[in-house]
Design a protein that fits this description.
By secondary structure, the chain is α/β, with parallel strands linked by helices. The chain has helices at 15-21, 40-46, 51-59, 68-79, 110-128, 141-150, 169-176, 192-204, 206-211, 222-243, 258-269, 285-292, 316-323, 328-341, 348-357, 365-379, 385-397, 416-423, 450-460; strands spanning 3-5, 30-32, 90-93, 96-100, 132-137, 156-163, 183-189, 214-215, 248-253, 273-280, 358-362, 404-408, 444-447. The protein has a domain at 90-107 and 223-423: Rossmann fold. The longest helix has 22 residues, at 222-243. The protein is globular, with a radius of gyration of 21 Å. It starts with a strand and ends with a helix. The structure holds pyridoxal-5'-phosphate (PLP). Pyridoxal-5'-phosphate is lined by residues 108-110, 141, 219, 253-259, 307-308, 386, 409-410. Residues 108-110, 141, 219, 253-259, 307-308, 386, 409-410 line the site of pyridoxal-5'-phosphate.
C-alpha cells in the first residue's frame, strides 16, 4: 500500500515514510491510495479474533513495508500495557453499549493510538539508524498519552510543555511522575496558548528543527487513525454477537475529527455501520457542518469536555478529500477559500451524502452534567463528560433502529470535578492512580520564553 497527500503534491510513499512524515510535505494529510474492501467472509473470519489479532489483520492490509512477525510484536507490546484483557471492552448498560477506550496507561482513548505510535517510531528509527526529539504543548490529555507512548524508548527524547498549574492535578501528576531519562516535562509560567506558541515558533525555525531532528505526535499522523479503526471492528463484532443485529450505530465525542474519521474508514472498508453520530460540545463547527453544511470557525470556548474544545478540526480535510471525489485540485481551492473567507464550499448533493453517513448534535455543559447524573441514576454507571456528550447527542439523533455503541473516551476519574457536580460524589480513583501523589516528580519550570526553552532542548536533545 502506498500513501498520497490530500493536496496532491506527495504520492507513492511507503507506510513507514508516511508515519515519519506526519503532516505531508505539501501541507496536506496522508491517505492510503485505496481503502481495502472486506467481503462478508472476511468479516466473518475476523469476528472471533482477539484484539491484537484483529489489529494485525486490519493493519497488515495497510502496511507492506514492515515484516508481519515484526508488526505482530509491535502490536502485542502496544496493547500489553492495557489493564483490561480485552483492551477495549464493550459494556452493556440499559439500551446502549459502552465501548470503553480508557484502559490504557493514561486512562483516555489517545493511548490506543499513541502506544502503537511510540513503538512504531522506535522500530522505524532503529531500522534507519536515526533518532528524533519530539516536542509538543499540551493542555492535558495528548501530552500525557504521548509521554506514556515513548517513555523508555530508544532513539527518542520527548519534551512536553504544559501551562504551570493550569492542567488538572491528575493530569499533571500523570506527566511529571514519569522519570524515564528520555522524558522532559516543562512547566511554562503562562497559558496553554503561550506554550503552544513557543512550540510553533521552534518548529518554524527550520535550521533548529533539522539540527535537532524535531518530530511531533499530533493527531494527523496516519498511524493514529489506523490504530483507531480497530476498535470499531472489535465493538461491532461483540455487539453483533450479543444482539444478533446486522447493523450498528456509533456515537463519537469529537474534537479533531480523528476518532470519528477512523469510524468512517471502518465503514468504507465494509463494516456494517448504519450511521456515525458526531457529537460536539458547544464548540460545534463539525455538527453545524453535518446539519447545515456550515463549516465556519468561531472562537474556541472552554467546556467541561476540554479535550474537544477545538474549532478547526485538523483531520477534517481527510473526509473532505473523499467528499470531493478524491480531487486534490478542489481541496487546494477549498483550503484557500477557507483561509480567505473562513467558510468551506459544499454543494447540496455533498451535504446530503454527508448526512447519509453522519448524524450530528452539539451538547452544552448543562446537558452534559444532566446526562452524567441521569445515566448514573438509571444504570449506576459513571460517564466522563466527553462520553456524556456522545450519549446525549445519540439520545437526540440516533435512528433507534439498531444497537447503539457509545465511545467512552476517558475514565471519569480524569474529570472528577464535573462528575462530582453531576452526581454529588467524586469518582473512585482506579488502582493505577493509588499513591501517585507520593511518587518522585521530574519537571523543569521555565518562563514563557522561547530562548530559554530552546536552550533547554538544546542541552537535553538526543544528538547524532
Ligand atoms: C482527544 C479526545 C477526544 C476527541 O478526539 P478527536 O480524535 O480529537 O475527535 C474526545 N475525548 C477525549 C477524552 C479525548 O482525549
Amino acid at each position: 500500500m502506498k500513501y498520497r497527500s490530500t493536496r496532491g503534491q506527495v504520492s507513492g510513499i511507503a507506510f513507514s515514510d508516511a508515519v515519519m512524515m506526519g503532516l505531508a510535505d505539501d501541507g496536506g494529510l496522508l491517505l492510503p491510495e485505496r481503502i481495502p474492501q472486506l467481503t462478508a467472509s472476511d468479516l466473518h473470519q475476523m469476528a472471533d479474533l482477539s484484539y491484537p489479532q484483529l489489529a494485525l489483520n486490519i493493519l497488515e492490509r495497510y502496511i507492506d513495508d514492515i515484516p508481519r512477525a515484526d508488526l505482530e510484536k509491535l502490536i502485542e507490546r502496544s496493547y500489553a500495557t492495557f489493564e483490561h484483557p480485552e483492551v477495549t471492552p464493550v459494556i452493556n448498560k440499559g439500551k446502549i453499549h459502552i465501548l470503553e477506550l480508557f484502559h490504557g496507561p493514561t486512562l483516555a482513548f489517545k493511548d490506543v493510538a499513541l502506544q502503537l505510535l511510540g513503538n512504531l517510531f522506535e522500530y522505524l528509527l532503529a531500522r534507519s539508524g536515526q533518532h528524533m526529539n519530539i516536542i509538543g504543548a499540551t493542555s492535558g490529555d495528548t501530552g500525557s498519552a504521548a509521554i506514556y507512548g515513548v517513555r523508555g524508548k530508544k532513539g527518542i527524547n520527548i519534551f512536553i510543555l504544559h501551562p504551570k498549574g493550569k492542567v488538572s492535578p491528575i493530569q499533571e501528576m500523570q506527566m511529571t511522575t514519569v522519570t524515564d531519562a528520555n522524558v522532559f516535562n516543562i512547566a511554562i509560567e503562562g497559558t496553554f496558548d503561550d506554550a503552544q506558541a513557543i512550540v510553533k515558533e521552534i518548529f518554524g525555525d527550520l535550521d533548529y528543527k533539522q539540527r535537532h531532528a524535531l518530530g511531533a505526535v499530533n493527531s494527523i499522523n496516519w498511524a493514529r487513525v489506523l490504530a483507531q479503526v480497530v476498535y470499531y471492528f472489535y465493538a461491532c463484532f461483540q455487539v453483533q454477537k450479543t444482539t444478533g443485529a446486522t447493523e450498528v450505530e456509533f456515537a463519537v465525542p469529537t474534537g479533531n475529527f480523528g476518532d470519528i474519521f477512523a469510524g468512517y474508514i471502518a465503514r468504507e472498508m465494509g463494516l456494517p455501520i448504519k450511521k456515525l453520530i458526531l457529537a460536539t460540545n458547544g464548540n460545534n463547527i463539525l455538527s453545524r457542518f453535518v446539519n447545515e453544511g456550515d463549516y465556519s470557525a468561531a472562537e474556541v470556548h472552554h467546556s467541561l469536555s476540554p479535550s474537544m474544545d477545538i474549532q478547526v478540526a485538523s483531520n477534517f480535510e481527510r473526509y473532505l478529500f473523499y467528499l470531493y471525489g478524491e480531487d486534490s485540485g478542489r481541496i487546494n481551492k477549498a483550503m484557500e477559500i477557507f483561509k480567505r473567507d473562513g467558510v468551506l464550499p459544499v454543494s447540496n448533493a455533498e451535504l446530503s451524502r454527508t448526512q447519509q453517513i453522519f448524524a450530528a448534535s452539539s451538547v452544552n455543559d448543562e446537558e452534559t452534567i444532566a446526562t452524567i447524573g441521569e445515566f448514573a441514576e438509571q444504570t449506576g454507571y459513571i460517564l466522563d463528560p466527553h462520553t456524556a456528550v456522545g450519549v446525549a447527542a445519540a439520545k437526540r439523533v440516533s435512528s433507534g433502529s439498531c444497537p447503539l455503541i457509545c465511545l467512552a473516551t476517558a475514565h471519569p476519574a480524569k474529570f472528577g470535578d464535573a462528575v462530582k457536580k453531576a452526581t454529588g460524589k467524586s469518582p473512585e480513583l482506579p488502582a493505577a492512580f493509588e499513591g501517585i501523589d507520593q511518587l518522585e516528580r521530574k519537571l523543569e519550570t521555565m518562563p514563557a520564553d522561547i530562548a530559554a526553552v530552546k536552550k533547554y532542548v538544546n542541552q537535553h536533545a538526543l544528538k547524532r
